[in-house]
Amino acid sequence: MHEIEVILGLLLVVAALAVVAQRLAVPYPILLVIGGLVLSFVPGLPKVELNPEFVFVLFLPPLLTSAAWYTSWRDFRANLRPILLLAIGLVLVTTTAVAVVAHIAIDGFTWAVGFLLGAIVSPPDAVAATAITQRLSVPRRIITILEGESLVNDATGLVAYRFAVAAVATSMFSLGDASLRFFIMGIGGVLIGLATGWLIVWIHKVMDDSLVEITSTILMGFVAYLLAEHLGVSGVLAVVANGIYHRWHSSEVLSPTTRIQTIAVWDIIVFLLNGLIFILIGLQLPSVLKEISEYSTATLIWYAVLVSAVVIGVRLLWIFPSAHIPRMLNRKLRETDPTPPWQTLLLLGWTGMRGVVSLAAALALPLTTSNGTPFPGRDLIIFLTFCVILVTLVLQGLTLPILIRWLKIVDDAGSEREEMEARRTAAQAAMARIEELSAQDGVLAQAQMVAWLQTQYKDRIQRLSACCEALDEGSYEQLAAFRRLQHEVLATERRTTIKLRNQGIINDEVLHRIERELDLEEARLGS
Known about the structure:
By secondary structure, the protein is mostly helical. The chain has 22 helices and no strands.
């Protein structure tokens, strides 16, 4: 079977499993990993091996760009302290803890090999975090912290990974040199990301072609990543900085049509890449098991449980003191940002899913050291990495909804409240502008047209004010009922328009124009 046929077949499986996941109300990455795992044992299927360079170059830039695109810079900056404590502090602590346990418990693991394993499994995955948390009904701040952590911690983990590989391959390591290079790689990656972000914004300013603008948006993530990696700095931070900078300025340089099309294109790209990468993770198990046949099943299970428990346990132990200690030492922080409830901290501690970056890093390990001897522990590291991904993604991902219900954590509707307030403010500004223009000569000076616009915006302001009041009073059922009514009204408009087309009263072009407006309105309302 040719490679293109394998990819098309996997995409069909991705689509089918995504439908099943939606019916079961399970995050689709979990079902895709399990599906890939099951497929890997089906006899007669072609062997699928994951090329780590292929993953880093093809999958990582667009998926990180998408995650950065939907990251609010204001919220990211407001939560920078907890994000960095998790993305840098926790990653380094987890790396050390895994190294200590691996050196003590796993036969043949030196300190350098233990640190290498720790660097690989320490960073939670941006793709897994985004794909799972966006379906959870939790306060927006929790999702902001998790997504922000997952964007930055890949850089921390991959930098530590490079130093650990060098230490194992050459038996040389300098903490001072590693620390200096860590900061240089991080700062360099951010600068390259900002430069490429500025470039793509400039392209949007001088171009007026939606297809070219969308294409350049997709390609610039690859440019930022490859340029940063070529210069020896963090490609991950370059892509993240590029995405956040571009998104911040996109509202000013992209036309409405281009912006709508861009979001639609990115949604498709992210779904297909996410689907492929998670199902490919599951398909790797036979290749992994084949290389570690010298270990007994009981030994492998013990190692896998031990490392997975350390990864999960260290995060839970880190979360609580990292929230309390800064507030104990800083009175201003304690007053302006009180300690979150223990339920919130426990939920943050349980959301450390690992994913594609960890597996790609493990598969990218060299086969030999600098003197030509086999790279120590390589096959076992790959197996343990796969197990950590499987345990964190499936165990934690499946139990998150149960944990949320048990902890009685609910969405605070903060984003929805901000949206309603912003809409109301914009409508009030439009209303004031209408009154200014009504005094001028021209079309807007016609009393009938001005009155119609004023009535339209008065109704909108009243509706938005009612929604804001409902959110302030916690009347979510009332707001949901109002949205269901809006959906039903739009559905009636849609059925009537289709009926007019079927009766020959309007043609398909008219139908498509009306349909587009109804689609946009229904998409704005959400599900």
